[in-house]
Design a protein that fits this description.
The protein has 20 helices and 14 strands. The chain is of the alpha/beta class. The strands form 4 sheets. Strands 8-11-12-5-13-14 form a 6-stranded mixed beta sheet. A 4-stranded antiparallel beta sheet has the order 4-3-6-7, covered by helices on one side. Strands 1-2 form a two-stranded antiparallel ribbon. It is elongated and about 120 Å long.
């Protein structure tokens, strides 16, 4: 069984190398664009570092001499007059803006393309995962992965890494410029570096903790939203709104406190960095003034030095936050890679030389046993066979193992012991896709997706013409779609609205007609229907079952009385088998259940 995914990054133990290996396939197609973006960032940083230097040249070359016609040299090129200098300075500023624009566009485009591929890959991978994975992970948590964690990765590629890379390069460039300009003054300014490093290290611990807690609470809120909206009708029926409101208020309050913890951490850290910035400027002014009076430093160099100090401290205010966001994004990446590393459902395990499945002729369960949880078996030594065109009914109380048989037949789980044979060949040697494409299921809880009736029926049959779809709907007694709705163009909303449960069931039967399967599986298809809907469904089902192999799972025995063979299950074991008449004459468990059902129907 797959381990349950955890929202707390502290519990994710993936190595950085493993994370890089997992993300690299999404980055690799755009590596040259990323390299170009990095080159543009280096160029922008270089141009940013030129601005204080140009300021020094303006002060020492034109302002203090009070001669706008004097000349200076820039990179060995003679500049005559302040006007020409100002034009060059303006050109540098404009060039910086243009490069910054292209860098931002390229980075956003690259990041969005990476996330586009990542999100599509994640969605496709999740839809192909085995059912046990979804047994162990809530829908709210998985939605948080696809939405929240992918968005964190998007922010990392388009913003966080850019800022961190640019800020680190800028700080390194400033530090280099300071030491080139004046070694002694640079050493003065470096006195506060240890304090800065310690403050960032300490604050990062608290800020990371805040981000981690906030992320956890958001995941819990998403989970509760998904769970509540799915079961809102049940909540209202039970008059449990206040209970769920209290639960949500508690989660929301916990998220609020986590957010306030983060705000307090920043409220302490940011002013402290500002204070250190002021201290750094004060040290430079004091030391610079001494150097100026000793003629070891010009006024222009002192002003440029102050500019560089401001440039040095500017990214420090953001680096701690960006590093924390980076940690959060990396944790999101680890959780995404954890999902991508889950093994998909075994859809294709054809042995060399084995032909693809052309049709389902026979089905056999050969001493099959199974347990969802080790040591707690739900099926014991199940054996039965089904020939083409035959129908069997499987009945029993809830928990007897009926639906588990269908789950195994559909390949959602693999038997713990025994074999499932299709046409006399082990099921595992065929493509599960081939088996499923030749099988139609009508479930107890019919599922329709948002879109039109056409979209729902054509999900696997994109080339089926409209007249054939309309014919399938009529065979399934879906005349109501043409009488009260827009036929195959009827729009379906979330949960199958505006159709009733019985109408949704009939549409699912129409989907089975359109598929034209070899095998029909009905899983308690009329358990909760009104009598009129049940009559329509039974009529459609009888028409669908004609000349087809069928398996019917039911609580009510009246549903299976026309089956060729009926299997009664209890505690994961087949207790009785035979036709309806044979089991009635036997007067065993089936007979007693039948009598109970008659009494129940009579009392109703």
């Amino acid at each position: 069984m797959d381990p349950e995914l955890n929202t707390q990054e502290a519990e994710v133990k993936l190595a950085n190398l493993r994370l890089i290996k997992g993300i690299w396939p999404f980055i690799r197609p755009y590596r040259w664009m990323l390299a170009a973006c990095c080159a543009l960032i280096l160029l922008i940083t270089f141009l940013d570092l030129l601005i204080p230097w140009f300021t020094r040249l303006a002060i020492d070359g034109f302002i203090l001499p009070m001669d706008h016609r004097s000349g200076i040299r820039i990179f060995g090129i003679s500049i005559a007059g302040f006007t020409q200098f100002a034009m060059i300075f303006a050109a540098v500023l404009i060039l910086t803006l243009v490069i910054d624009f292209f860098q931002a566009v390229f980075m956003e485009y690259t990041g969005q393309k990476i996330i586009l591929n990542l999100r599509c890959t994640l969605f496709k991978h999740m839809t192909g995962l085995a059912v046990p994975f979804f047994d162990n992970n809530t829908s709210g948590r998985l939605v948080s992965r696809v939405a929240g964690d992918v968005e964190n990765m998007n922010e990392m590629f388009t913003t966080i890494l850019v800022f961190i890379f640019k800020d680190l390069i800028l700080m390194a460039g400033v530090f280099t410029a300071l030491f080139i300009m004046n070694l002694k003054l640079a050493l003065y300014a470096s006195m506060i570096i240890p304090v800065i490093v310690i403050s960032i290290a300490v604050s990062s611990v608290f800020i990371r903790k805040a981000f981690r807690t906030i992320r956890q609470k958001i995941a819990e809120i998403n989970h509760m939203f998904a769970e509540t909206l799915t079961g809102v009708s049940v909540i209202q029926t039970m008059a449990s709104e206040k209970l769920f409101n209290r639960k949500f208020d508690r989660l929301n309050t916990e998220h609020f406190h986590a957010s306030m913890y983060q705000i307090r951490a920043f409220a302490i850290f940011m002013p402290f960095i500002s204070f250190l910035s002021v201290v750094g400027v004060a040290i430079v002014i004091y030391g610079g003034s001494v150097e100026v009076t000793r003629l070891q430093l010009t006024i222009g160099e002192l002003v440029a030095f102050l500019f560089y100090i401001k440039l040095f401290f500017r990214p420090l205010r953001e680096l701690s936050e960006k590093f924390s966001l980076l940690q959060n994004a990396l944790a999101s990446g680890e959780r995404i890679i954890t999902i991508l590393e889950q093994e998909p459902a075994p859809l294709r395990r054809i042995t060399p030389g084995q032909a693809a499945l052309e049709s389902i002729r026979t089905i056999e369960f050969d001493r099959v046993s199974f347990a969802y949880t080790e040591g707690q078996p739900v099926l014991h030594d199940i054996s039965f066979s089904l020939a083409a065109g035959q129908s069997i009914g499987i009945v029993g109380q809830t928990g007897s193992g009926k639906s588990t048989i269908i789950n195994l037949l559909n390949g959602f789980y693999i038997p713990g012991a025994g074999r499932i044979l299709i046409n006399g060949i082990d099921q595992g040697e065929f493509s599960m896709n081939d088996i499923r494409q030749r099988t139609a299921m009508v479930m107890q809880d019919p599922v329709l997706f948002s879109g039109t009736i056409r979209d729902n029926i054509q999900s696997d049959l994109p080339d089926v013409p409209d007249d054939q779809l309309a014919q399938a709907l009529k065979h399934a007694n879906c005349d109501f779609l043409f009488e009260r709705h827009q036929g195959i163009d009827t729009l379906i909303h979330e949960g199958g609205r505006p159709l009733s449960s019985g109408e949704k069931q009939l549409v699912c039967i129409a989907r089975a007609f359109a598929v034209n399967p070899d095998l029909i599986i009905f899983d308690e298809a009329t358990s909760y229907m009104d009598s009129q809907s049940e009559i329509k469904i039974h009529d459609a089902v009888s028409r669908l079952m004609k000349s087809r192999t069928s398996i019917i799972i039911a609580h009510r025995l009246s549903t299976v009385r026309d089956c060729d063979t009926i299997y009664l299950m209890r505690d994961g074991v087949i207790r009785e088998k035979g036709s309806h008449d044979a089991l009635t004459r036997l007067k065993g468990e089936y007979y007693h259940l039948l009598e109970k059902e008659k009494i129940t129907v009579h009392n109703q």
